[in-house]
Amino acid sequence: MKKALIFILLCGFGTTVFAQNGQDIPISAVNSGKIWGAVYQQRAAEYKALCFQAYNIAKFRLDMALKKHHRKPLAVVTDIDETLLDNSPNTAGRAIQNKDFDQQAWHAWTARAICDTVPGAPAFFKYAASKGVAVYYITNRLEDEREGTIKNLKLHHLPFADNKHLILKSTSSSKEARRRDVLKTHEVVLYCGDNLPDFNALYDSPYTEQSRNAATEKLKKEFGHKYIVIPNIGYGDWENALLKGALTNAQKDSLIKTVVKTDLK
């Protein structure tokens, strides 16, 4: 895989993959971008620094909260993918073959339970648990991914890796109802995530780039205070808002060319 990845990076957007019919197929701009994003996530010290920065702020905010009196037990709520577990090998593997996201292939990946962790995440959540703070994992992984997910969390000795604290997607992608369920029994000190719907229902669908930016402006005081954002340039609702429902790689590439700012006349 390393040799193929180097070849793609050298060739840039003109890279091709060899199809079963013997024809070279250009890798889309979208998938080329996902490969580059995966390399950044895996190799850039800047990515690690951003993650450490986020979790350092989280620890600081948690310590401040622990000094106050609370009527309910404390908890932190976190997303899993790209917030705690690193799926960049899967993202890169799909993209390097010029393949889109596929639910069945994703399930096969999560069942392997071999994800590494996001820098700074394990130390923070273990610290929270050591202070008596519960950790709830609210994720849009599905019920048939429960076993693999818990196995992966336990691989890294993460706290509260059990059925009670792992809250999967049932019917809706929105996490609002699941967040409210946690609030019935706990005071949530922090929310950690890589995708803005991890934090607030203002980001739930239907949405546009404009509505997401407006929500971010409205909630700006919460970022670094109660909302801890982990960088993820590979995928997310920002991508869905940008691509506006485009289905084919050609449609996605065409949209990107119309919206990206360049110095070309």
Task: Sum this structure up briefly.
By secondary structure, this protein is of the alpha/beta class.
Description:
By secondary structure, the chain is of the alpha/beta class. The chain has a domain at 51-86 and 115-258: 3-Layer(aba) Sandwich (Rossmann fold). It has eleven helices and nine strands. The strands form three sheets. The chain has a five-stranded parallel beta sheet with strand order 7-6-3-8-9, with helices on both faces. A two-stranded antiparallel ribbon has the order 1-2. The protein has a two-stranded antiparallel ribbon with strand order 4-5. Helix 9 (209-218) links the parallel strand 8 and strand 9.
Shape-level CATH architecture of the domain at 51-86 and 115-258: 3-Layer(aba) Sandwich
Percent range of helical residues = 40-55%
Q: Going across the major beta sheet, what is the strand order?
A: 7-6-3-8-9
- Give me the CATH superfamily of the domain at 51-86 and 115-258: HAD superfamily/HAD-like
Q: Tell me, rounded to a whole number, the average pLDDT.
A: 92
Output the CATH topology of the domain at 51-86 and 115-258: Rossmann fold
Largest sheet: 5 strands, parallel
Element string (H = helix, E = strand): HEEHHEEHHEHEHEHEHEHH
Number of helices: 11
Tell me the name of the CATH class of the domain at 51-86 and 115-258: Alpha Beta
- End-to-end CA span: 38 Å
- Unreliable residue runs: 1-14
DSSP, total strands: 9
Structural class: alpha/beta
Beta-sheet strand percentage?
5-15%
Task: Provide the gyration radius in Å.
Answer: 19 Å
